[in-house]
Amino acid sequence: MSNYELINFKTLGDERGSLIAIEEGYNAPFDIKRVYYIFDTKEGVIRGYHAHINLKQIAIVVKGSCTFILDNGKQREEITLNSPNKGLLIEGLIWREMYDFSDDCVLVVIANELYDESDYIRDYQSFISKVNNAKN
Ligand code: T46
Question: Coil, helix or strand for 3?
């Protein structure tokens, strides 16, 4: 399925522990304009249920684990994030849902644009119409 990929971040470490740096143009393939993080997610909660029109993002679980459902309108795939050295790059029209958050999950997201509600598609049928229109 296109429109997402896993990025392996290089871990810089020494006897004190580990460090990962994310830099635009190096291991983040876009200008970084916003960072947000999701934590203390309650048991059984499913977040997301939307797609973005233009936004590019990298999701990194820096602690714990959670699973992304990624749907391009044709196929749905699941990817579990459980390592701070893996980044999930999502761009283009992808419906996403996130679930199975561990108690300690901290999900950091780096985005190429500021928050803009008009970039969200929060209705699944509208998402499918948009995908079909984009193909024609
Ligand atoms: C995404 C997934 C992975 C803001 O005011 N500023 C922000 O930068 C963000 C991200 C959200 N908000 C507000 C909007 C809502 O009132 O925070 C509230 C929760 O946001 P939302 O319900 O969209 O959260 P999620 O977890 O469903 O989705 C978030 C991102 O919004 C979205 O872009 O791809 O994480």
Answer: coil
Query: Following DSSP, what letter does each residue of 23-66 receive, concatenated?
Result: -BTTTB-S---EEEEEESPPTT--EEEEEESS--EEEEEEES-E
Ligand 1 contact via 41 beta carbon (within 6 Å): no
Task: Compute, in angstroms, the gap from residue 97 CA to the centroid of ligand 1.
Answer: 12
Segment 23-42, tens digit of pLDDT? 999 999 999 999 999 999 99
Nearest CA to ligand 1 atom 11: 115
Distance 98 CA to ligand 1 centre (A): 12
Query: What is the predicted pLDDT for the residue at 1?
Result: 55
Q: Which domains, ranges and CATH numbers included, belong to the chain?
A: 4-135 (2.60.120.10)
